[in-house]
Amino acid sequence: MPVSRVQDSDLIAGFYDAAAHPERWINAWNAVCHAFEAEDGVLFEQEHPAAAPRILAATNWDVATPGLMGEFCLPVDAPALGGFAYRSRAGHLLTTTVPLEGAGRAGLGLHRAVTGSEFASADRTALDTVARHVAAALRLEKLVVEERQASAMLGAALDQYSHGAVIVDAQGAILFANDPALRLAARGGILLGDRGDGLSCDQPEEADRLASLIYRAAVRGEVGSTRVTRRGGRAILAATVAPLPGAPGARSRPVLVTVRDLAATSDVAQADLMGLFGLTGAEAAIVPQLLAGDSAALIAQSRGVSVATIRAQAARVLAKTRAANLRALASMIAALGCG
Sign of the C-alpha dihedral, residues 48, 49, 54, 60? Predict the structure, then answer.
């Protein structure tokens, strides 16, 4: 009986699957027609009474006539037929409508040949159940479309971003990675797989810390940062982890991980360091090398000064930034967006 068939989890799931994949509305509707033993039928939505209907699925139904749903039309003066009018089609008809957001509605119509059995009151109850799931699926479809549009806009913006940007879920599965992130990953330190693979680090301890930061950002809305090192111990990257807006009622939200190359601090970033912390030009200039793990002797040699001078400058950098150590300085810079 259709009443029991519409409780089938696969049949109902078909509508929610169609919300994410509109081309599958016809599959879901075919299942409904089969459950009701209908020869044909039509499923549509209408944003408001004066709008042209959007046909979601039509099974063996002529929908070529403008303003008509096969033999259905949508006059406002036919409330007895659930908002449908039916014109000279032999057989048995079962229709219903369900309100959507605003003045919108969805319409469902099923037809059996005149030689078939009439639709029973239980069929009406069952079709009303289907209609409620259709309405919920259409609401979900709208949210999916809005999310995809927002994601596309965010992705386009992040592709213009000079730093690496990776969007992940609570488990670190990659939803999006911009080109700078891919280039950074190619040089080591962070690991990026294909879509669905996790964002991670070369070093196991750093990978665990990054995973923890991502989870806390997704579930608790916390912001954090960490330093990522390339094999061999040279600190080259800083990762800032921050939550993005999530769907209402969701247990977790997507997370944006921004990755910066600390060994490539620009002149503008050095100016930021000078303005934010009162560093001198010489002090700001050695910050990238300090964070990259270069020794005082190596920095002194590259800058043509004494080791004592570099050590004194490094001490003043920590004092002015109030960072306890270089790791804390790296996290501070990552959080501030310098570098």
Answer: positive
Residue whose entry in the numeric block shows the structure tokens 């959007």: 54
Distance CA 202, CA 180 (A): 18
Instruction: For residue 233, give the DSSP letter.
Output: S
> Per residue in 200-259, pLDDT tens?
888 888 889 999 999 999 999 998 888 788 776 665 677 888 888 876 667 888 889 988
Q: Is 253 exposed, middle or buried (0-12, 13-18, 19+ CB in 10 A)?
A: middle
Check: CB of residue 124 under 8 Å from CB of residue 131. Answer: no
Q: Which helix (H) or strand (E) holds 104?
A: none
The secondary structure element, H or E, covering residue 8 is none
Instruction: Starting at the earlier edge strand, list the strands of the sheet with 105-112.
Output: 54-59, 40-46, 105-112, 92-99
Does this model's pTM top 0.85? My answer is no
Q: Tell me: the pLDDT tens digits for 44-75? A: 888 887 777 888 888 765 443 333 343 444 43
Tokens of 105: 């509605």
Domains of the chain: 2-149 (3.30.450.40), 161-261 (3.30.450.20), 265-339 (1.10.10)
What radius of gyration, in Å, describes the C-alpha atoms of the chain? 31
Q: Which residues contact 99 (CB under 8 A, 6 or more apart)?
A: 105, 135
Pull the structure tokens for residue 10: 């696969």
